[in-house]
Design a protein that fits this description.
The protein contains seven helices and 14 strands. Helices cover about 25% and strands about 25% of the residues. It has one domain: Alpha-Beta Complex (Spore Coat Polysaccharide Biosynthesis Protein SpsA, Chain A), CATH 3.90.550. About 40% of the residues are buried. With about 250 residues, it is of the alpha/beta class.
Length: about 250
Amino acid sequence: MDKWAAIAIVYNEIDFIKGWVENKRDLGFEDEDLLVMVSEKPFQGDEVEDDGTVDYLEDEDIPYITGVWPKDDPMLNAGLVVLKEYDWVLFISPDEYLTKDGFNKLKATCAKNTHTSYAVKTMNTYFKTYKHRIEPREAYHPLIAIKKGNRFVNLRSVEDDNCAYLSDDIILYHFAYYRPDFKIEQKMKNFSHAHQVIGDWYNDVWVKWTLDTKDFHPTHPGQYKGVILDEPPKEITKYLNSHSLFSKE
């Protein structure tokens, strides 16, 4: 049976890291099989006040490594070195979640050993609230499973490109834009794609956004055509209970 680990990379992710840990436990991971890579500085922009992410990891005794990296892939590869004894590593960000059924199907697919990495074909991205999903879904299919011996390149691609899509029914629930206003403002300055953000997107688009807004992705507007009401299953929304916005909706 394949041995699995799970990795995440973070910079001030207190709203999501608790749910990420709870999700991995529900998927069957032991805490010792988790690794959180904690950046001491943002990839771009100025540092902001620590939000308690490391304090939480220490309280829960979750393995983590701190450091400074220029972007996602060297940060991830540093973690893969630590996880080199595992057959497969699950990489989903703190704001991304899988259901138990989805992960079981993922493991069954990986067990066939026909490819060295897998990307999701179906990603439900939520915007402003945890109930409003981007529709049509964006044309982005993130890699979430990487086999032993492979490495990340170009943020979320892999060195060995023997990659395949997972089946449509394995859904990745993505909440990158379900954040308080100040966190979105920080994200536009700090994340890997900050240099690609169009104009003053936070004030011109995020602040003024309504349910009728069209073409509003921060770097490629046409990727976010609009939203529909599509609430995730309770198995997923329970991981948002510790989120600062959840009790206000």
